[in-house]
Amino acid sequence: MRKFLYGLSGLALLAASASAEPAVGRDPGANAPVQYEVSFENARHHEAQVIATFRNVPKGPLKVRMSRSSPGRYAIHEFAKNVYQVSAVDGAGKPLKLERGEPYGWTVVGHDGTVKVTYTLYADRGDGTYSQVDPTHAHLNMPATFLWAQGYDDKAIRVRFKRADPSWKIATQLPAVAGEADTFWAPNLQYFMDSPTEISALTVRDWRVTDHGRAYTFRLALHNPGTDEDADKFVEKLKAIVPEHIKVFGELPKFDHGEYTFIADYMPQITGDGMEHRNSTFISQPRSLFRGNFSQLGTASHEFFHAWNVERIRPAELEPFDFTRANPTPSLWLAEGFTQYYGPLLIRRAGQSTVDEFLTGLSGTLNGVVNGPGRLYGSPQEMSLRAPFVDAAAALDPTNPNIFTSYYPYGAVIGLALDLQLRGREKPLSLDDFMKQMWRTHGVTEKAYKPADARAALARTTGDQDFADGFFKASIEGSALPDFGPLLDRAGLKLRTKSPKKAWLGASRVKVSGTDLILDAAPVPNSPLYAAGVEVGDRIVSIGRFEFANEGDWTDALERLKPDDATTVKFVQRGQAREAPLKVAADPTLEVVRYEKADLKPSEAQLAFRKAWLGEDTPAAK
Fold first, then answer.
1. b or e along 557-583 (b: 16 or more beta carbons within 10 Å of the residue's beta carbon)?
2. What is the pLDDT of residues 222-279, one digit of tens each?
3. 8-state DSSP, 442
């Protein structure tokens, strides 16, 4: 059983329940084939010292390397660039020759069956992908921290963390080694690399959830410059949303070692992020809980949903995870997008937001996808396969910003469309029923799925193969969306343009350089500025009688121009003065509001539909 949070005494804060599931594998013992030790003597300068020992090495060269990708991320990340001062010795302490023939790893020759590699790691980006070491904490994402040896993928691992401060505690989904303080183990490389670890002056809160006769420990391990009251308040919010997640699937996952941990870092030096893992999540924001007004609950809800959807209902292309390359899949519209849909929905059902607050967020998501240009260039499957180019990926050459709609909102809107269509059938169903079907077929069994499997699950859910085929052909393989107006009307919700009398040019963000006004966003295809040939980076001189010398001039023009106005735009494009006709359009921004706010009266049937979907509309918990 796993016991992993340690204080000054080195004693476990809480043991796992005796009724929990048995551990995956078993502690490999003191002679584990792979052992790591990591320390932080130079934390002020963001350095960690790592010692990696590999035992029972076969005769011949041993290849060790750093990862180029990380579980939960889909792009390439060059972790080797922050590894230096690399040396190696054999079991007797004899120095070994290291050869580096490529950027990502080293070859060790002349060993005696044991290889001990020592290196320095520079780490100063705290998020779900990278690592950060400083005097306040050590946040370790394993692929960014630990090199590994080829041929040892299935070998058990031990790791010992040497705390820089004795008051620090350790939070990780790795099970603890009994009787050895600050030492943990993993059954194999896949589990180890999926186990981020936070070591700091953590505030810890535990609670118990019993599901189908099994008791699980839930834990918040919080690094936050706030008060105990802040931690208690956040825990109450987490407690409220967990049952709503369980209702969607009908049960909790059988968490390994009987625990699930929210590792939360809300320090000013951190980078905002959220990353799912098998029995934990890392969630971060540079604002404290108080300064963020507990908005961090949104990320927590999203990542917890991943405990089912992605960690166990898993796209086939993501397992086993390959640490040497990008890991693309065409199913992120389901894996990430449906999770994006459910994150705020379950906060609403838990009473942690109001219906109006939920609809405000839904409006932004729906508008961005329906009115965004990305759907002109590809389906949800196509956008999913573009993930290696956009998911925290970095490149020097610019990319056309109009050709991509993120699979997060795209999939969320697909989820909304499917949910409302299922709820409107003669025999009402819901997206919850589809997720339960996916859970039974691919989650409980942990049998990875491909797109055809998701289509088959929809057919089984509805008993209607034609509906499943039509939906996938139109909205998954294609980019069609249904008319959301009638679908939302069923819930007494009005879809409307937010400001139909407001002028819209296709791009509104500008920046000022001296007295030059520069367009700072690419115009949307088929918009007024796009049709006029204006591009991002162009200097806008005038529109009709409106001349521009500062941002106030631009704002004034947008307020006074009217839809259907026919005028001209003068601009300078890469040194060439140009003039083109410009016809002003109406702002297409959409919003969803309750009938009651649109001076319409919902019927009893509409209110019942809304309640079944969104839950009882009560004041949000503050």
1. bbeebeeeeeeebbbeeeeeeeeeebe
2. 999 999 999 999 999 999 999 999 999 999 999 999 999 999 999 999 999 999 999 9
3. I
